[in-house]
Amino acid sequence: MTGILAACIAALARLASGASVRCVDDRPCRGQCIFFANHCSHLDFVVLWSVLPKDLRARTRPVAAKDYWEADRLRRYAATRVFRAVLIDRQGGSLGQLRAQMDQLIEALDAGDSLIIFPEGTRGSGLEIGPFKSGLDYLARQRPNVDLVPVHLHNLYRIMPKGEFLPVPQLSCVSFGPPLRLQEGGSKAAFLVRAREAVESLKQ
Fold first, then answer.
1. Helical packing angle, 95-110 and 135-142, nearest 10°
2. Checking DSSP bridges between strand 19-23 and strand 86-88, what pairing results, if any?
3. Strand pairing report for 60-65 and 86-88
4. Strand pairing partners for 154?
5. Measured between alpha carbons, how far is 155 from 174 in angstroms, rounded to an integer?
6. Which of 95, 144, 148, 176 has a CA between 20 and 30 Å from the CA of residue 26?
7. Phi and psi for 199 in degrees, rounded to 5?
8. Based on the number of CB atoms within 10 Å of its own CB, is 70 exposed (0-12), middle (13-18) or buried (19 or more)?
9. How large is the greatest C-alpha to C-alpha distance in the chain, in angstroms?
10. Domains of the chain, with CATH numbers?
11. CA 135 remoteness from chain centre
12. Model confidence over 125-158: pLDDT tens digits?
C-alpha cells in the first residue's frame, strides 16, 4: 500500500512541477549517493525524490526539518512512511545536538540508503545559492566511498513560494551533475566552495 502511495505522490509531484531532468549519465547515481542541492521551496526534496528512477527512489531518504514535517498527522505520515525522511531538529545548536544530527545521517548511510540534503541549511530566494554549511564536508570525510552528486533545482521557488501551501503549476528542471570528489589535503572551506560551485554550474 505504501509503495503504491509513493508512486502516486511521485507522479503528482512530477505533474505539478512540470519537471524535466538533465543528467550527465543515463542515471543520476549508480551506487550509494548523497544528492546535495540548492534549497528554495518545501517542494524541493519531493520533486528531486520523485524524478529518481524507481529503484533508486526506493532507497533514497530525504533529510528534512522535523518541525515542518511533524506539524500535522498528514505531513508526519508522508515524511515517515512514504518518503522515509530523516527528520532533524533545526533548532539544535549545541555541539552535542549537531553531532546527534550527523549520527542520524551516518546511520542511514550505513544502512545502505542514499540521502538528499540541502547544504545551505535554509531556504533561499531561488535566485542565489547561499554558502554551504559544514555538514556535507563531514559526511564526505566520514563516508568517502559514497558518491557526492550535485543537483540544481530550477524554478521551484515560483511553483511553491514561501508561505504558500498549494503549488502554482509551472515548468521546472532538475539537473544532476557528475559526482564530486574530496581532494587529498584539501580544506573544509575549499571543499564547500567547490561543492557550491558544482551546483551553481548546473544552472540553466
1. 50
2. unpaired
3. parallel
4. 173
5. 9
6. 144
7. -70, -45
8. middle
9. 48
10. 2-200 (3.40.1130.10)
11. 13
12. 556 888 999 999 999 999 999 999 999 988 776 6
Nearest to 104 by CA among 63, 60, 150, 142: 63
Q: Tell whether the torsion through CA atoms of 82, 164, 105 and 113 is positive or negative.
A: positive
Length of the chain: 204
- Per-residue model confidence as pLDDT tens digits over 162-178: 555 555 556 778 899 99
pLDDT in tens, 17-70: 777 888 877 788 888 999 999 987 777 888 898 889 989 999 999 998 888 888
Beta bridge pairs of residue 21: 174
The three-class DSSP label of residue 114 is strand
CB atoms inside a 10 Å sphere around CB 102: 15
Query: What pTM, to 2 d.p., does this model score?
Result: 0.89
Q: Do residues 198 and 177 touch, judged by C-beta distance below 8 A?
A: yes
What DSSP character marks residue 180?
B
Q: In this structure, what C-alpha cell is assigned to residue 147?
A: 558518491
Grid coordinates in use for 149?
A: 552528486
Distance CA 184, CA 92 (A): 31
- Beta strand residue intervals within 8-59, DSSP E: 19-23, 33-37
What is the enclosing helix (H) or strand (E) of 16? Answer: helix 2-17
Contact between residue 178 and residue 24 where contact means Cβ atoms under 8 Å apart: yes
